[in-house]
């Protein structure tokens, strides 16, 4: 096998969409500026030309209506919609459809409804986009039952997980970190699937476990590489999907290392970070050697000024400090 | 427009359906009062002509989305009343295996996309069904039922506009029963009819007497044919009235007894339709009594089925969240 | 002082509303069926007659619009609206206004906006109201920065906390448990304030700490009373407000007892329960003697059937079992 | 209707305001290109006559709610451009202390309720301000500005209907610039004008040439007077066009160069108004050049102020979440 080509996270997502649109006529897309404009972040470029306006729907600003349409279409079994919410921050205008409808229909209907749909959205801070355009929000979606939640960190994961998400028979919230769209990495041309619910150990280690998501995976790996030179061996786990969660990999790692740092860009309270910390406290108590550390933003909205935003986002320095504190 | 010719068979189906809904709902009220049916129960008594007149134009493959007041839609569309009655009881034989109850009865196999506990929530679902229909080149249609209260809500505005710009085969049926729980229509909107809102979306809209099943049938026929012919969506307002409280247990202090009595005496859709069928010699008093009896028996059978059905089991709680296994889903011990 | 009279949780809330409406002309109410109907649960009975339709607004179903109106009115400083969301489950149709607007305005505007408003809503399971009318949802509101979150358990707390909430200059989500509306307890006639951010130790103990909210406080107390006879001494803490959280009282108790059970009716993942568990794991690690226990519903929507719903809700038996497991 | 008589002073204020907005926005574009202003920046170039013509009828105590494209509204209402320019830079002297940026500029002291990053989000806020006005017996009014795209969204529908039934002193101004980012108006709605939607709510609605500040002024005057007189809300659609991309950095591939050039040549609101003022001898070419220069100096002063202002400090992150202390709020170490 030759060298695996490198493409960006955005291109990888585009490839996954293109692949599924080409293979399955039931797959359609609904969203704002996904057609002519090619997506606010260029992710859907070329798809309208290739598949036409009967598959790629450029919609008026009516997110509740749009996703409601996607849900109805999915419920009939006639389509498998991919709904693009331009920014995950806009969930609030369509949360009822996401959560009281899509997430619960299967359950409320005793398993009789199949809501095969994906909600793709851009998330994450770092662009100076302020409090209403910078959130990541995966915690909340994992809290609310009935949604699968995917937060890929690498181009290859993004492609493989998106194909699996579109093929999944349940509603999947697929959050793409804006700061990663331009990141390049090796991505196989062939449409390989990465199953939901399987964590990826991005680096093996034995002294301490870091669980990190999305952009925080890179910062955690940076710390792991740095501290390795000092003889500190850090295991970095990227759960990739938050629901389902690969508990085994996480629990086994914590049991092995006895130490846990959770690094996450979402708000800290009642969050993905506390979820993992609580897993440690209840399921790995015997093996835990030191207090669990959470490295997250503060419990505040996201400030606009670049001077503040860069401090708000968890930094390599803070991760390093947390690791040292519990070693 | 010429009056459509309707077969006797269809007219009798309409009459039977209305009676069936009425009998079902009155029995459900008793069962609620006896504490056999828990939760919130919103009955369709008085509004039977709307679901019936509309659905009389639909075939099995067509879709409908429904509301919290959904029994009538379900029955008209051909839902199995044993399954729905068992659902009202919370039994495992229910159409939702006891997980949904009155506000969530559903039968996807006949295109019934589900009742809905969120007002307006189902409106865009019918639009989505219509998108599926159109893309698959089918000649089916979808109908969204909803109330006057719902027409003030986001999904009405957003759902209808999307259907209009994409020219989808869907009909929006607003059951204006004059109240959003306690709020009279006159305090919800300063216009005279929800149908006036059709202009906002550039679609045909009409207001009809919802107590006259023939009138409902006619306007629905036109709208549904337009949808089937690829001419896009329409809006129908059916002016109706509910003969019971908003939900069972509601003393309905917000309306006068006189108003209620007036509607019952002058605008009972079953009495009105029966009179017409008697006049036309399509129905005799004997036929009518027989239908009533037959429907009562059917409902009684459903009640027996529900009563004798088993309760769901504790472990059922963990089923049906996802189509895949619960691995990695529960996380927390339970 | 004579006997304190006993009134219901619903009446206590009504008294708090009545008091603030009578004392402050800026206080108004917006919601569905709060006037003529007196509220779906009878909580606002009599207020329309007393204060008229210019203070008590019976609104069409347009929750996003309603709360948006409340926010605008609050932002001007001209009014202090109390918005009633009939069921907390309906948050999805107005979440953007709750969360991207009310919660963040003060922050986004550099502290210049003052959004003095209360969002009252009924929550909680046990009525056979199924998946869209039975949730409690305080975790999610505590996760999202910018909202104060109150979940009272007793009539007296409800009255005192609601008065404080209406007088607070920030947006407060005030969740009333439906199953408690009829519960009676001693409530002072005078309008005493209970500050937000002060937990109430509902029972003192030394062997184990239970942190419980809303209806779960009663079940936890039941277990505490029962096990006391066996010589097990349980401390039951009701935080009353989740944001701000009285961390000190909780942390000190866990340090004292070395054992923690969190009992909560909200969904378990990334939740209030994991928040408290994570506090134990990170801030009380040294003193912790056994694994932390979470007693919550499963991560599923709420089933309708009474046969299922009663199992879904955390039971006295499950709380007792959890306590015994870590003793 | 007789044309209202407008004082020369007001006419000159209108001209100066439009020039000020134009100069401000063109400078902001440069600053964005130079990476001095981060984030998303949506400029008002081409639409100056709308904010100006409407706000010319308002006093300081009146309220407006704004949008992501909010600089024009802020400037017209009298916002301090030093504070807003510093905000665009993210400096601590900004109107939001650097926490908001372009999408959140605000000045509550002059009734500017804030720009908004959520399309439609601000519409009901103006309605709420109007409720406050009415209850306090004031004679102020509130104006909600929003785009054509926003008129498809929930808050348009819900906000306007509430204002209508409660007869509140608010005016809804839709800035129909023909695009919702890349989606032309013709693909958003199948009606011809957002003004047609007024019928849904039973309120007066009118469409006006948004490039003609006098025309905007006149229809706004009527609507605002109606509101002040207790006669309830109105809807105005101002047909306009944005001369720049949706946000800075947008190559605007969704529209033709020809279309853009046509608007710039034939429908530049400043050129049109200047011509009128010259004809009427209210303005000379020299006056105009002087105004241009004065505005450039003002903006330059604001830019200098912004550039020389300090950055906010790390610890500021924790401030302004609540009016009370952070005790029990952060919980997690930071
Ligand atoms: C979004 C939302 N808001 C409020 C409710 C509570 N609620 C249930 S039914 C109802 C009234 C509905 O009125 P209408 O649409 O006219 O239907 P009707 O009950 O008259 O058939 C309300 C307010 C809800 N279920 N969902
Ligand atoms: C609820 C919501 N959906 C989508 C967006 C992304 N967005 C920002 S501006 C915009 C277009 C707005 O169009 P319009 O209302 O016509 O205003 P214009 O930009 O033309 O002034 C969109 C889609 C948003 N900010 N909020
Ligand atoms: Mg109604
Ligand atoms: Mg526009």
Task: Give a short summary of the structure.
Chain A is an alpha/beta fold.
Q: What distinguishing features does this structure have?
A:
heterotetramer; A: 327 residues; alpha/beta; Rossmann fold; 2 domains; 7-stranded mixed beta sheet; B: 334 residues; 5-stranded parallel beta sheet; two-stranded antiparallel sheet; binds thiamine diphosphate; binds magnesium ion
User: From the 3D coordinates, which CATH architecture of the largest domain in chain A would you assign?
Assistant: 3-Layer(aba) Sandwich
Instruction: Identify the CATH homologous superfamily of chain B.
Output: Thiamin diphosphate (ThDP)-binding fold, Pyr/PP domains
Can you tell me the number of structural domains of chain B? Answer: 1
Number of domains of chain A: 2
Kindly identify the CATH topology of chain B: Rossmann fold
Shape of chain B: globular
* Order of SSEs of chain A: EHEHEHEHEHEHEEEEHEEHEHEHH
Given as residue ranges, the uncertain stretches of chain B (5+ residues, pLDDT < 50) are none
Q: Class of the largest domain in chain A in CATH?
A: Alpha Beta
Outline the biggest β-sheet of chain A: 7 strands, mixed
Q: Which descriptor suits the 3D outline of chain A?
A: globular
Of all chain pairs, the largest interface belongs to: A-B, 55 and 53 residues
End-to-end separation of chain B in angstroms reads: 63 Å
């Amino acid at each position: 096998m030759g060298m695996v080509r490198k493409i960006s996270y955005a291109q990888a997502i585009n490839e996954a969409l293109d692949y599924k649109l080409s293979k399955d006529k039931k797959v359609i897309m609904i969203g704002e500026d996904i057609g002519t404009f090619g997506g606010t972040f260029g992710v859907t470029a070329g798809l309208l030309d290739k598949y036409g306006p009967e598959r790629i729907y450029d919609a008026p600003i009516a997110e509740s209506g749009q996703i409601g349409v996607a849900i109805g279409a999915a419920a009939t079994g006639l389509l498998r919609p991919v709904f693009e919410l331009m920014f995950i921050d806009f969930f609030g205008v369509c949360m009822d459809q996401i959560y009281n409808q899509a997430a619960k229909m299967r359950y409320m209907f005793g398993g009789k409804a199949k809501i095969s749909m994906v909600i793709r959205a851009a998330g994450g801070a770092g662009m100076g986009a302020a409090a209403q355009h910078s959130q990541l929000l995966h915690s909340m979606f994992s809290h609310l039952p009935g949604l699968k939640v995917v937060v890929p960190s690498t181009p290859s994961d993004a492609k493989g997980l998106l194909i699996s998400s579109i093929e999944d028979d349940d509603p999947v919230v697929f959050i793409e970190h804006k700061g990663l769209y331009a990141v390049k990495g090796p991505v196989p041309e062939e449409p390989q699937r990465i199953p939901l619910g399987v964590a990826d150990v991005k680096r093996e280690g034995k002294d301490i476990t870091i669980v990190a998501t999305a952009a925080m995976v890179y910062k955690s790996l940076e710390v792991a590489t740095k501290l390795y030179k000092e003889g500190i061996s850090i295991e970095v786990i990227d759960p990739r999907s938050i629901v389902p969660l690969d508990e085994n990999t996480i629990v086994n790692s914590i049991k092995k290392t006895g130490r846990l740092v959770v690094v996450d860009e979402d708000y800290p309270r009642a969050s993905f970070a506390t979820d993992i910390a609580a897993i440690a406290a209840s399921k790995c108590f015997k093996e835990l050697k030191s207090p669990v550390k959470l490295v997250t933003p503060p419990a505040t909205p996201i400030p606009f000024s670049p001077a503040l935003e860069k401090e708000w986002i968890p930094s390599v320095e803070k991760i390093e400090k947390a690791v040292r504190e519990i070693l | 427009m010429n009056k459509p010719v309707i077969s006797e068979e269809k007219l009798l189906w309409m009459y039977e359906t209305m009676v069936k809904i009425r009998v079902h709902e009155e029995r459900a009220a008793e069962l609620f009062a006896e504490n056999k049916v828990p939760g919130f129960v919103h009955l369709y008594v008085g509004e039977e002509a709307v679901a019936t007149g509309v659905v009389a134009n639909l075939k099995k493959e067509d879709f409908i989305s429904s509301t919290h007041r959904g029994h009538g839609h379900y029955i008209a569309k051909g839902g199995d009343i044993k399954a729905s009655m068992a659902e009202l009881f919370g039994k495992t034989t229910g159409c939702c295996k006891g997980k949904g109850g009155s506000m969530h009865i559903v039968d996807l196999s006949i295109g019934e996309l589900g009742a809905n506990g969120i007002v307006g929530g189902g409106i865009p679902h019918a639009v989505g069904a219509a998108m599926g229909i159109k893309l698959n080149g089918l000649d089916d249609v979808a109908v969204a039922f909803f109330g006057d209260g719902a027409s003030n809500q986001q999904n009405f505005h957003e759902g209808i506009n999307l259907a209009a710009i994409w020219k989808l085969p869907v009909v929006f049926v607003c059951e204006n029963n004059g109240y959003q729980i306690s709020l009279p229509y006159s305090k919800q909107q300063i216009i005279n009819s929800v149908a006036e809102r059709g202009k906002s979306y550039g679609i045909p809209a009409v207001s009809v007497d919802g107590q006259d099943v023939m009138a409902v049938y006619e306007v629905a026929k036109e709208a549904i044919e337009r949808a089937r012919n690829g001419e896009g969506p329409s809006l129908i307002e059916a002016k109706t009235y509910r003969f019971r409280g908003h939900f069972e247990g509601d003393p309905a202090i917000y309306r006068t007894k006189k108003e209620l009595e007036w509607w019952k005496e002058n605008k009972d859709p079953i009495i009105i339709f029966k009179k017409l069928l008697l006049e036309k010699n399509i129905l005799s008093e004997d036929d009518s009594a027989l239908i009533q009896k037959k429907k009562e028996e059917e409902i009684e059978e459903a009640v027996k089925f529900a009563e004798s059905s088993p309760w769901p089991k504790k472990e059922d709680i963990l089923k049906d969240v996802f189509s895949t296994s619960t691995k990695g889903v529960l996380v927390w011990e339970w």
